[in-house]
Specification:
CATH class of the domain at 56-166: Mainly Alpha
Largest sheet: 3 strands, antiparallel
Helix content: 55-70%
Shape: globular
Strand content: 5-15%
Order of helices and strands: HHEHHEEHH
Low-confidence stretches: 1-5
CATH topology of the domain at 56-166: Arc Repressor Mutant, subunit A
Radius of gyration: 20 Å
CATH superfamily of the domain at 56-166: Winged helix-like DNA-binding domain superfamily/Winged helix DNA-binding domain
Length: 168
């Protein structure tokens, strides 16, 4: 059985492939982080055709999901929820504002704070996304051998990794 004691390394998973002159932890096949990276990239690739129908990118979709959960949030809260820096989120919000998806306004209590709210167009996009993405992603994931309970366990495992890394 494969044992993955480290996020970005493991103990001789593919010992038959290991060059004796190289540390096994540096073999690509022994990297959990590479598997996570590849899975993320391929999932985003699967989403892209559906998001293109909405005229948005995957990062913009993530912002929309945060705002669909709770509209009118400070930029800092959106950035925190997405685990990004505000200087990464701000240009993303500016592009979305130009697309008339959202508006940014100064906070009424703290003028330094920017509050992000959905426009009617941004709100309407939720229904459009719902009609496109779950159905489309369902087809994409049907090829995946995981059962529904496995997805829940995978989500829990990934949350554990994320929470451990956030503490560092």
């Amino acid at each position: 059985m494969n044992n993955y004691p480290y996020l970005c390394g493991a103990n001789d998973i593919n010992t038959s492939l290991i060059d004796k002159n190289m540390h096994s932890e540096l073999q690509l096949d022994n990297q959990i982080c590479f598997r996570l990276y590849a899975a993320t990239r391929l999932i985003i690739q699967a989403y892209t055709p559906m998001l293109n129908q909405l005229g948005i990118t995957y990062p913009q979709y993530l912002v929309l999901m945060v705002l669909w959960e709770k509209d009118s949030q400070p930029v800092n809260d959106i950035a925190r929820r997405l685990m990004l820096e505000t200087n990464t989120v701000t240009p993303l919000l500016q592009r979305m504002e130009k697309l008339n998806i959202l508006v940014r306004k100064r906070g009424s209590q703290d003028k330094r704070q920017q509050i992000v709210s959905l426009t009617p167009h941004g709100k309407a996009m939720e229904e459009q996304a719902y009609s496109i993405i779950p159905e489309g992603m369902g087809r994409e994931l049907c090829a995946c051998p995981l059962q529904e309970k496995d997805y829940a366990q995978l989500a829990d495992d990934l949350d554990s990794i994320i929470n451990a890394l956030k503490k560092k």
